[in-house]
Amino acid sequence: MLTLSNLPGGLKSRGMRIKGDDTPISPGEFRDVDIGSGAIRDNILMLPYKEPSQVLSGLLDKIVEDGRRFGATADMKVSDMSAQAPVGTTLAILERTLKIMSAVQARVHFAFKQELKLIAELVREDSPANKEYPYEVDGEQGRSAKYEDYRHVEIIPVSDPNAATMSQRVVQYQAVLQLAAMSPQIYDMPELHRQMLHVLGIKNIEKLVPTADDIKPTDPVQENQNVLAGKPVKAVAYQDHESHIAVHSMAMQDPIIQQLIGQNPQAQTIQASMMAHIAEHVGFAYRNKMSEALGAPLPDSKEGLPPEMEYQLSKLLAQAAAQVIAQSRAMVASQQAQQNQQDPLMQMQQQELQIKQSEVQIKQSEVQRKATKDQADNAAKQEGLKLAGLKVGIEIAKAKEQSGHQTNQRALDFNKHREQLAQQKKMSEVKNNTPESA
Questions:
Q1: Domain boundary at 279, 298, 317, which?
Q2: pLDDT at site 4
Q3: Tens of pLDDT, residues 96-106
Q4: How far apart are the two ends of the chain, measured CA to CA in Å?
């Protein structure tokens, strides 16, 4: 109704004619009109369109208000949040704020995917059996194209339905960076930073954040310089890994470099980077030793192995590992022996050990001498005790002998006395039995 009121239509008399064409009259333009009779207003009739009513205008306002209320689903705006708010909280508020927009974008993404799929099917069906590409194509088929070339192709939109705005994607990557800071060993940090810069719209990302594939192999001294400067380094299979390990280890043992690294606030990062690079060389060196022990080069691990081949190779590698560890033990023992012979500190320690051993031997001899002396003293004491015992025994024997003599004398005296008593008794009896007494 509003459109018809602003752009009205109507009727005009058949006899009225405008000279020229029927194009709309420009502002300030006047054209000649031929009419039969009367005024122009009498030959043109405008259709009576009614203006929009107040009820219709109120209904429109009501619909707009309900739509705004439905879209305002967030209770808090991101601008009202504190700068110290956790990333997870910010992401939740963003998701709540953009809930309606994300839902619309997800449905548009799905609809566009279906549309591209239908277009791809139409292209496949309308393509001839054999057709040449308008450009050079690598491969055996050359420039010829077939219907089968499009059967395995799926066209999908490149948009992300889970992130409606750049701020939402930035907050998502900030959450991932916080997780990566807690466990950096399980993340590909250069690739993660590259994706973050890509979301921010930064150009020349390859120059800002080089990955391992972009690093070119260099000599060990240049690798040391790159580590000290905080640049990434990479080891490759064809390098002399033993020499690289020796150069890196001696650089880390250099007192001047140790002093400078100790004053650097990034000392832990530099040491961790150097140790990780040395470990990479150690891994390649161990792989080369296993290849030599096996007598054949090891297959590329990136391509993968069939299960049967991997099973057989594991058995052979187990035997080669025993040979490698035996060689490593022998080499370490030989190096340790040579180092002990040449190291003055080790020699001093050996001399100290010998002195301690001699002191221990002297203490042991003193203990033995003391023990021997104690044994001799004990033997003398025992001999003295034996002599004293013998003296006591002799005295006891003498005492017993004297006591025996006295007892015998007493017995003799007693017997003698008895005999005397007996004789006196007999004499008295004899006296009593004589005639005179009768």
A1: 298
A2: 62
A3: 666 777 777 78
A4: 206
The C-alpha angle with vertex 143 and arms to 138 and 149, in degrees rounded to 5, equals 85
The total domain count for the chain is 3
For 234, the domain range is 218-298
In 264-343, alpha helices (H): 267-294, 307-342
Query: Does any domain span residue 417?
Result: yes
Q: Which residue has the higher pLDDT, 371 or 149?
A: 371
Q: Alpha-carbon distance 227 to 243, whole Å?
A: 17
Q: Is residue 401 part of a domain?
A: yes
18 in a domain, yes or no? yes
Dist CA 147 CA 130 (whole Å) = 7
| Distance separating alpha carbons of residues 125 and 39, to the nearest angstrom | 65
Instruction: Return the SS3 of 62.
Output: helix
Please state which of the ranges 15-19, 111-115, 283-287, 402-406 shows the lowest mean pLDDT.
Answer: 15-19
Select the more confidently predicted residue: 408 or 241: 241
Residue 146's H or E segment, with its range, is strand 144-146
Q: What token pair was written down for 236?
A: 């490759």
Instruction: Enumerate residues 6+ apart whose C-beta is below 8 A from 22.
Output: none
Cβ atoms of residues 340 and 346 within 8 Å:
yes
pLDDT in tens, 280-301: 899 888 888 888 888 888 877 6
State which H helix or E strand residue 188 sits in. Answer: none
Pick from 211, 115, 116: nearest CA to 155: 116
Q: Which of 270, 298, 326 is the last residue of a domain?
A: 298
CB 284, CB 237: distance < 8 Å: yes
Mean pLDDT throughout 11-21?
A: 63
* Listed residue (161, 160, 128) closest to 144, CA to CA: 128
- Residue bearing the bigger pLDDT, 411 or 184: 184
> Do 230 and 270 touch, CB atoms closer than 8 A?
yes
Residue 406: partners with Cβ closer than 8 Å, 6 or more residues away: none
Give kind and range of the element (H or E) at residue 413. helix 344-432
- 195: in domain: no
